[in-house]
Amino acid sequence: MPRGFFLTFEGLDGSGKSTQLRLLVRWLEARGEPVLVTRQPGGTRIGDRIRTLLLDSKSESPAPMAELGLMFADRAQALAEVIRPALNVGNIVVCDRFTDSTEAYQGGGRELGSEIVLRLHEIMCCGLMPDLTILLLPDLAASLARARRRNERMTANGADEGRFEREGHAFYQRVFDKYREIAAREPVRVVVIDGDASIEEIHQRIVSVVAARLRTSSGA
């Protein structure tokens, strides 16, 4: 059985990433594709506990290197328990964030640099990379404003994943710039969708890219 297809979504919180992921999954399922959806951090019992440590704004902030280690501990568990098994039976795996997020947030935002992130990826993930990454990069200020409004609503409903949204503009500018750097380094794998088009327009652009890549992957 051929290996499945590994697709990731990346971008700042508030970029529309989660909305576009849901729309694409709906489109894939309508085509009858075997799809598994997961997220990072999280997606496993261990990963969900790590997610709480990392994202809850009431959590004591770990040191940057500890934060980096927790990200990769979560990823290694997800690969062993969820992602590799699904790929091995031919599924399309759609993952909300992967190592690009770690390179952007910890490598860029926390200023740990790309080298240590990529080295840990090679060790902890055996170098597994997505077949395609959709990187949503609308206006930085608008993304942050949307993310903070969303987290206020979540907190009011008893959920709190706003620890990173407490960071200032300089942190997020570094994250944004690192995402741009990743995309420039890997222009085939990473497809950037920037600007402020409508949800439907962005969805159609993503569908066009994904459909073409799936045809190439299947040899059709």
Spatial order of the strands in the main sheet? 2-3-1-4-5
Radius of gyration: 17 Å
The biggest beta sheet is recorded as:
5 strands, parallel
> What is the number of helical segments per DSSP (H or I, 4+ residues)?
8
CA distance, first residue to last residue: 16 Å
Catalogue the unreliable spans: none
Number of DSSP strand runs: 5
Q: How do the helices and strands follow one another from N- to C-terminus?
A: EHEHHEHHEHHEH
Shape: globular
CATH class identity: Alpha Beta
Number of domains: 1
Concise synopsis of the structure shown:
With 220 residues, this protein is an alpha/beta fold. 57% of the residues lie in helices and 13% in strands. It has one domain (5-218): P-loop containing nucleotide triphosphate hydrolases (Rossmann fold, 3-Layer(aba) Sandwich), CATH 3.40.50.300.
